[in-house]
Design brief:
Number of helices of chain A: 10
Structural class of chain B: alpha+beta
Helix content of chain A: 25-40%
Order of helices and strands of chain A: EHEHEEHEEEEEEEEHHEHEHEHHEH
Order of helices and strands of chain B: EHHHEEEHE
Largest sheet of chain B: 4 strands, mixed
Strand content of chain A: 15-25%
Strand content of chain B: 15-25%
Radius of gyration of chain B: 19 Å
Shape of chain A: elongated
Number of strands of chain B: 5
Number of helices of chain B: 4
Distance between the termini of chain B: 24 Å
Shape of chain B: globular
Helix content of chain B: 25-40%
Strand order of the largest sheet of chain A: 2-1-3-4-12-11-10-6-8-7
Oligomer: heterodimer
Distance between the termini of chain A: 35 Å
Number of strands of chain A: 16
Radius of gyration of chain A: 25 Å
Largest interface: A-B, 81 and 57 residues
Amino acid sequence: MSDIHSQKILILDFGSQYTQLIARRIREIGVFSEIRAWDISEEEIREFNPRGIILSGGPESVTGGAEAPRAPDCVFTMGLPVLGICYGMQTMAGQLGGRVESSAVHEFGYAQIKVESANTLLQDIKDHIGTDGDSLLDVWMSHGDKVTAMPEGFELMASTPSCPIAGMVNEEKKLYGIQFHPEVTHTLQGERMFQHFALNICGCEALWTAAAIIEDQIARVREQVGDSHVLLGLSGGVDSSVVAALLHKAIGDQLTCVFVDNGLLRKNEGDAVMEMFAKNMGVKVIRANAQDKFLDGLVGISDPEKKRKVIGNTFIEVFDEESQKIDNVKFLAQGTIYPDVIESAASKTGKAHVIKSHHNVGGLPDHMAPKIG
Amino acid sequence: MLADCQIIWLLKLVEPLRELFKDEVRKIGVELGLPYDMVYRHPFPGPGLGVRILGEVKKEYADILREADAIFLEELHNFDWYHKTSQAFAVFLPVKSVGVVGDARRYEWVIALRAVETIDFMTARWAHLPYELLEKVSNRIINEIPNVSRVAYDVSSKPPATIEWE
């Protein structure tokens, strides 16, 4: 089996609200991608070892002088394909000797761009044919600044009447800049542009598929836990359910789930969870019927934050009590997903690349779960 | 404070979904054989009905809310609206209101219904559910749960309102 992480795209985040969408689009076409902060070091980029780099949009202005975020210079000299989107295109232009100017007019919404030259990124992508036989594309724009002079070696790729340099390309160095946003669905053929970039230009294979992700995770979990036992708080929600199914497939009886009935569940929730996981799938599930304990703890409390705290602490007490009944437990499984990782890193450090785990039993929100480490 | 004896903090973490987006989690969920209904269900808050019963939580309130909530979800499925909303639930309001059922005066609790459409849960619009659906849910809740005299539909969007009431 090929390593599904071996061919990947690095996305440098300049703060756009669409950055996560870029990563999702790349993965939808079957290529692994990760988001890192724009000020990543050259060493970290080399360690990540991407086949190509995408520079996201962002709220800053390249004309903001020394304060303006820049891509590490090595991004343009490593010989890797680079796709700059919106701010990403502007910083590419600025850093390579072109010119970016602020404009009083903010362009936001649909636009129709005219394809100005043959290039790999937009090859065979046409939405409409103009009266002069030009290829026209429906795209989504959201910008104030724009590139007014391309760096040396670049050719015009696309234009609109209000944005004469809406796309620029240096095919030899595989550098592409587009002012519009291919990651939002309003750009009709955005997905094909990402296919062209990731598959054709960067040469990645589409290895990132559901079946391959499962196989990869199963191998990693087996390696991590060996013959130890793993504990999982099963809530009935999507994330913990998928973790349960995955771990059951990976390690079978080494997994024990604890389902806590706190008396505050939806109708038949407890029975439905037991039916599906314990009965149908054969997962080991301990059902802790702790309704009274929770409801007793809540007597006389009406403040929402205090209620959350009581429920969170009681959950941990009950969960811990149940976990003591299982022998040889060394691991706690959690349904942490990638957006949690990005957001918790960003909120703690302002950067997306320092990533730290914390215990969050049963998927309780951060402020409910006391945490260590 | 938490007791020192708690062992869960000493355990090492296994996080097999750590590099996946939600849509990828769902795709591998169905690939692993979990039912579509489970994998595409709405999110449910950790404190559960505890934050959907306003003010003090009592078993009596939770039991009423559970029934009302189940009726609402059942009819959303029947009308094929469940998957058109991002989150839908009932809320228990600890206030009493007057109603008339048959010839009898009823002085009972109020249930609010909440349904929203959202892409990312950062902003949300209240769902424009069909009147027929709301009518059916309201009738069923008041007829089938003796302790409810009134049903209201929440038409607040986020912002300024949050999705959950607490």
